[in-house]
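Run 3-ketoacyl-ACP reductase through structure prediction, thanks.
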Amino acid sequence: MATQQPDGPFVDRVVFITGAARGQGREHAVRFAEAGADIIAVDLCEQLDSVAYPMATPEDLAETVALVEKTGRRIVAEHCDVRDRDRMAGVVARGVDELGRLDFVLANAGIMPAPGEQGREIGAYTDAVDIMLNGVYFTVDAALPALLANPDGGAIVITSSAAGLKAVSTDLATMTHGAAGYTAAKHGVVGLMRHFATSLAARNIRVNSVHPGGVATPMVINEAMAQFVTENPSFGESQMPLMTLPMMEPASVTDAIMFLCGPSGRYITGAALPIDAGLQLR
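Sure, done. The structure for 3-ketoacyl-ACP reductase is below.
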């Protein structure tokens, strides 16, 4: 019996996703593939000195590839640093050459360099800004030629954070270089989102940002973060949403992104969408 093929707005579309080896990025890749899209995926797959928890590995990205291919869709995946604009452009070009087009860009790659002794080093600040602000700009810039060549337009969704609407730090103890960089970068990409939304609207390319609270991924669920919260109760309290819901799973972020990329979001651009159960109101 033939496998039933998906039918919907993402069939035969192509999505470029950064930070795709695990967590939110993997969820986005698999869900879009299940909905009929092909994927261009990148991830650093290396450890940074400024990050206190284990980062994604080549094996993690290989698992994402396997999960996408299991859906029957195609994926072009490479190890790539979002801080390297030229390399990013090369990956996008290779993906478009193989898959034929580009419709959506999900600038998802991120780190949480606030906890641990690493977070108190100035390198935690520069890495945060380089990856989550400059890296977002490089991601969009590298993808623009292919998006502009698409007569159907497209959509860009930037993953910011509740920290793009309020500060991560709560007092002197949590005022690490990494926390400052995370907050600055996540606020900064809102400006980039509005810059691109205004500039690309006439080409029917919608640009929005999503602002999740704590999401159950390895970036949040790890020993370094647990110790940081234990040592700084005010930080943990500040991250509690107003609604009494379980900790958010990556699928909830993907739901919002698919809404913004699909026909239901066709009139939405320039929006900063909180997905945080009221955390930004605290």
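The radius of gyration is 18 Å.
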